[in-house]
Amino acid sequence: MLAGRRPEGGIRPGQCRLSHRLRRGPGRAGPVSERPLLIFGAGGLAREAAFLAQRLGRRVTAFVDRAPGTLGGHPVVTLDGAVARWPGAEVSIAVGDSALRRHLAAAAAAAGLAATSLIDPATPIADDTVIGAGAIILPGVSLTVNIRLGAHVLINPGVTIAHDVVMGDFVSLAPGVHVAGNAAIHDDAFLGIGAVVSNGRPDRPIVIGRGARVGAGAVVTNDVSAGFTVIGVPARPMRGRDVA
Ligand SMILES: CC(C)(COP(=O)(O)OP(=O)(O)OC[C@H]1O[C@@H](n2cnc3c(N)ncnc32)[C@H](O)[C@@H]1OP(=O)(O)O)[C@@H](O)C(=O)NCCC(=O)NCCS
Fold first, then answer.
1. What angle do CA 132, 133, 138 make, to 5 degrees?
2. What's the gap in Å between 76 CA and the centre of ligand 1?
3. Alpha carbon distance 201, 18 (integer Å)
4. Ligand 1 mean position to 229 CA, how many Å?
5. Residue ranges of the domains in the chain?
6. What's residue 34's pLDDT?
7. What pLDDT, in 10s, does the model give residues 30-58?
8. Partner residues linked to 91 by β-bridges
9. How many whole angstroms separate alpha carbon 235 and alpha carbon 111?
10. What's the CA gap between 151 and 134, in Å, rounded?
11. What are the pLDDT digits (tens) for 137-155?
12. From the candidate CATH numbers 3.10.20.90, 3.40.50.20, 3.90.1300.10, 3.40.50.720, the one assigned to the domain spanning 34-115
């Protein structure tokens, strides 16, 4: 249920525990990497990641999927095949499901591949914003100040994230999600298309717990416990869908 208690009381804006702190704004830091770039997945998000790579001036070396073939003129290879041909390549895990993305990121890391972020070059990134390795930030995303995003977050088009927001690893925001100021969204949480997270307070951010799911169009006005699914306006738990 939606509860007054903090699901995981841990992270707060300004007290972020990100596993990788690779990118700090503003601007597009550093030269374009010349390393081979592998995109995990062969679906719509993988094609969007390839589009991002193109916007960043990068060439996609191959897609990685269980079923070899071709996609958009690029080879699709298995993980073993990719590691054999391009050891140490950079990878973007372009898979929407947070749990599968986590699994594939671990497999890629174990194989010696390096997570790289694909962040649309028009994304505003403030000095105090930190984005973890492996992030995918698609075009049309608006970020303001003091935002900390974990490793392998997926931020879809039209998302807005206001001040003092912290997100854990593998968080997924569907298109058009709006997160107001002072929020903490824990690892593996999923926010469906058009969901809104109302503002918390500086001393008490609104919290969405680890692995929670927020349904499309929901308006979150209270904390969401870890593993819970909420829907509606205001967001309420879906019966029978709680895993906590
Ligand atoms: C909330 C959600 C995660 C639940 O998924 P689920 O557990 O598979 O639930 P179901 O889709 O089977 O729906 C169960 C019931 O809830 C209703 N429901 C589902 N999502 C709803 C939502 N967002 N708002 C209101 N009702 C919703 C369904 O109509 C269904 O009602 P019924 O039992 O009366 O037929 C999912 O429906 C959702 O909103 N996903 C977001 C999709 C999205 O954003 N896609 C873009 C990805 S980039």
1. 85
2. 32
3. 22
4. 9
5. 10-23+119-233, 34-115
6. 86
7. 678 889 999 999 999 999 999 999 999 99
8. 38, 115
9. 41
10. 6
11. 999 999 999 999 999 999 9
12. 3.40.50.20
Residue 6 CA to residue 93 CA, distance in Å, equals 30
What is the whole-number distance in angstroms between the Cα of residue 239 and the centre of ligand 1?
A: 12
Rounded Cα distance, 179 and 165, in Å: 8
Check whether 132 is labelled as a binding-site residue.
no
For the question of residue 178 being annotated catalytic, the response is: no
For residue 126, the tally of other CB atoms under 10 A from its CB is: 15
- The DSSP secondary-structure symbol of 53 reads H
Measured by CA distance, the residue closest to atom 39 of ligand 1 is 215
Q: Find the residues whose C-beta lies inside 6 A of ligand 1.
A: 96, 156, 174, 192-193, 213, 215-218, 229, 231-232, 241
Residue nearest to atom 19 of ligand 1 (CA): 215
Are the CB atoms for 187 and 171 separated by under 8 Å?
Answer: yes
Q: Which two tokens stand for residue 172?
A: 């997924």
Q: Check whether 226 has a pLDDT greater than 70.
A: yes
C-alpha 218 to ligand 1 mean position (Å): 10
Q: Rounded to the nearest 10 degrees, how much is the dihedral formed by the CA atoms of 123, 201, 179, 39?
A: 60
Domain 10-23+119-233, CATH: 2.160.10.10
Q: Which of 238, 241, 242 has most ligand 1 atoms within 8 Å of its beta carbon, as the pocket-test mutant?
A: 238
Instruction: Please pick, among 20, 74, 152, 163, the residue that the annotation labels catalytic.
Output: 163
| β-strand pairing of 69-71 with 74-77 | antiparallel
Considering only CA atoms, which residue is closest to atom 26 of ligand 1? 231
